[in-house]
Each structure stands twice: as C-alpha cells, then as structure tokens.
Write a structure and sequence with these properties.
39% of the residues lie in helices and 9% in strands. It is α+β, with helices and mostly antiparallel strands and 211 residues long. The strands form 2 sheets. It has a 5-stranded antiparallel beta sheet with strand order 3-4-5-6-7. A two-stranded antiparallel sheet has the order 1-2. The two termini are 21 Å apart. 39% of the residues are buried.
Amino acid sequence: MNAPTKDSEIPVSANDWLGLLTRLNQRLLSTLNERLAESHVDMGLQPFADQYPDSPLAEVARRALTGIIDWCGVPGASEEAIADAENRLGIRLPKSYRDFLKVSNGFVLPGRFIDILLPVELIRPFGKDNEEIVQIRRELVVDPVGEAFEYHLDRAIQVTGTPQMGDDFILLDTYRSTALDECDARIYSRVDIYWYASFAHLMLEESESSL
C-alpha cells in the first residue's frame, strides 16, 4: 500500500484538475528534449499514433516526438462520450476519473513508463488484450476473496495504453471502493501492484513524482 496523501490536495474541481495537469505538463516538458536526444530511449508514443492516427491525442503524441509541444493534453470529453463508454463497459466510471476526462480526454506522458492516458473512447477491460497476463495472475491467487483484484484482473478497466519500456498499466479496480462514487486505482506491473484510494490520488502522486 502506498503512503497516504493529504486529502486537501486531492483534485475535486475542474480548476483543481487543470492545476494538477499543468504541473504535470511542466515536469514532462522540462526534460522532453533531453530525453529525445538519448537515442536509446523509446518514448513509446509512436505505436499509439500509428494505431489511432485520427485520434486528437495521436497528434499530441506526434508533436511530443518532435519536441515541439506546449500542452500534453486535449480538450475534455463530453458527458455523452463518457456515458457512451459507461454503457459499453457496463459500469459507472468513478467520479475523479470522470472529472479528469472532462478537463482532458486523455494525456500524453512522454518519458514515463506509462506513456498514454487513453481517451475515454479507447478504455477497455484489461482482459480484452491481456488474456495471458490475466491467466498467469489468476493461477497465482491463493485466496480469491482477499486477492479479489488479482482474481478479477480481467474486469479491471485499463485507462492507459500498452507501454514500450515495461509492462505497467493504470487500472481502475471495479471490485473495490474506499469512497463514495469512487473505486480504487492501481498501477499494475509484473513486478508489483501499487494501490491508490482513487484515480485522483494516483494522479496527484504522478504529478509530484520524479521523472
């Protein structure tokens, strides 16, 4: 479990989210050109741009790869687009994630192991594209109740693209909630699983962590 975060710092309004994303954006851009100059570093953005060339976020990814970019996000998603995703997934998305989407419908994270926060149209159950990982994790479960997240990993909602430098994903845990209108968020890797009380808690820590 991760260290607790001050609740007073958690984004709850559109202005809060804009402030958090602005700080994160500044941190990402402060090292972007340096990282682009390192030939051994794979920014992991080109596969997304190639697979979804018409996505507004793909254009942001392409600009990031040139180093000519001032904002890593895109305009927010409409309530209709969010509702369409919820109908497709058969769940109600947690409030903090919905609030993020309304400010920026996805976000590019150049230089991070997790490089793309997907637009709402592309989020999906983790098991859709990761059957092998799901099966391996389930076989390791000893207690399906105590390890419900691992046991039901296929139903977690994947909100990030597949990275190029590792196997890290941001997942929304549809089986566990510690707050009203929220669900727990996880950073999943084959090495470990990090827990956060909500998507907002996770993103606050990401905005303050070192690149």
